[in-house]
Each structure stands twice: as C-alpha cells, then as structure tokens.
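sorry for the late reply, my laptop died twice this morning and i had to redo everyting from scratch. anyway the thing you sent over, i finally got around to it. pasting the sequence first so we're on the same page, its 146 residues, then the predicted structure underneath. double check i copied it right bc i was rushing
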Amino acid sequence: MTALLALLLSIPAFAGDRTQVRIMRAGKDVATFKAEFATDSESRAKGLMFRKKLAKDAGMLFVYDEPGRRAFWMKNTYIPLDMLFFTKKGELVHIHSEAIPQDLTPIDPKRDDICAILEIAGGEAAKRKIKVGDRLAVEGPKGCLP
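ok and here's the structure:
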C-alpha cells in the first residue's frame, strides 16, 4: 500500500489530465477539443505515441514554462496528426497538417517563441477551418501562455 501511494504521489499533477481547449477567432469559438496535458518531460516525450486511434474532438496539449523553439517528430506515432503551434500570446502561428505516422523528420516552425503545441487528429484543423492567427483558450496549467 505504501509503495502504491508513493507511486501515485510521484505522478505529476496534470500529466494525462484532460481539459477543454478552445480555438477562438474574433472572440468566438472556432473549435473545441478535450485535450490531455503534457506538462513534464516524460509526458512530452511520450505524447500520443503507440495510440491506434484518436477521437475527432480529442487531443494533447504540450505546455511549456518558457517560450522556445519546439520541434516534434512522429516516432512510434501510429496515427496522422495535425500540430498547432502557439506563442506566449496564445496566437496560432503554425499548422502542420497530416503529420506522417512514424516519420522521423522534425516538424519545426523555426520560431523561438512557442509556448504550447496542440496535437489533434490529422485533417481536423482543415475540417474545422482553424487558421493561423486564431487564439488558444485553455483552463488548467498554462505554462508561459496568457
């Protein structure tokens, strides 16, 4: 019992927790997703690896404490993903659509001000008409987001 309690206490509070994430334009919702948080190095490293499916309204939000350059790849990821890159102002500055499963090519918007990346099912950004310039609204750990 003590070992189980120690294990539970060692898990980061928000890793794997879910929250509602909204993509907004001109103050109105464009899209809403139920996103898992990836807020520590372990949850960020694993991301959506090894998953065989992802609901159209689900995703994973990678949140960082400081803005920086962020590059992702698709190693051990079996489903195509859209990756949405947000600045410290919560502005969507890059969309990488339909990332190829298991591709090792870095996906890098070549910016030093990325605070969060939202991974969603491949093709969902286009279907929902999400565009560069949209804003991210999230409850929960925000890291360097507003």
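The CA atoms of residues 24 and 70 lie 22 Å apart.
thats about all i looked at so far, will dig more tmrw
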